[in-house]
Amino acid sequence: MSYIPNISSCAVKAAGVLTYMVQCGCITHCALEYIGHIIMCTGSSMEPTIYSNDILLTERITPRFQRIKKGDIIIAKSPSDPQIYICKRVTGMPGDTALVGFSSQVVPRGHVWLEGDNHSNSTDSRIFGPVPQGLIHARALCRIWPPKDIKMLTCKERQVITR
């Protein structure tokens, strides 16, 4: 009989711990899904702004409300491989005309034009064309790693688009 109170006491404590863990999991999920997250970039397409292995803090609110603007650095699903995320700068909005070599292309409604800052080493809209805004996952706010290079990623317009 003396074991019964101890077992029920342990069960109550375990239920409390489990409830706490579920709450933490829900809060973490909501924060990552709806607010923002931390990502590591790979590749050289955004140099000299972002280097391979830089870690960025991103936010997901701006893309959800379609408030992306020209010059923003975004994280998007690759139009050519949806298993891969790409980090590029928005250089054109719907209605803008993108210059590609000797030709031009109008960015259609619901799309953006993305380019890497390292033009000579970037697979971007010059290759795969305008990107549907629905593929935009997050907007980069700041670089948080390496510590010596912590900085806000401010909006910088590139002069490759005409309106």
Describe the model.
The chain has 163 residues and is of the alpha+beta class. The chain has one domain (36-162): Umud Fragment, subunit A, CATH 2.10.109. It has three helices and eleven strands, in the order αββαβββββαββββ. The strands form two sheets. Strands 1, 2, 3, 4, 7, 8, 9 and 10 form an eight-stranded antiparallel β-sheet that branches. A three-stranded antiparallel β-sheet has the order 6-5-11, with no helix packed on it. The longest helix is centred in the N-terminal third of the chain and has 33 residues, at 3-35. It is elongated, with a radius of gyration of 22 Å. The N and C termini lie far apart (82 Å). Residues 159-163 have low confidence and may be disordered. The active site is at residues 45, 88. It is found in: Mitochondrion inner membrane.
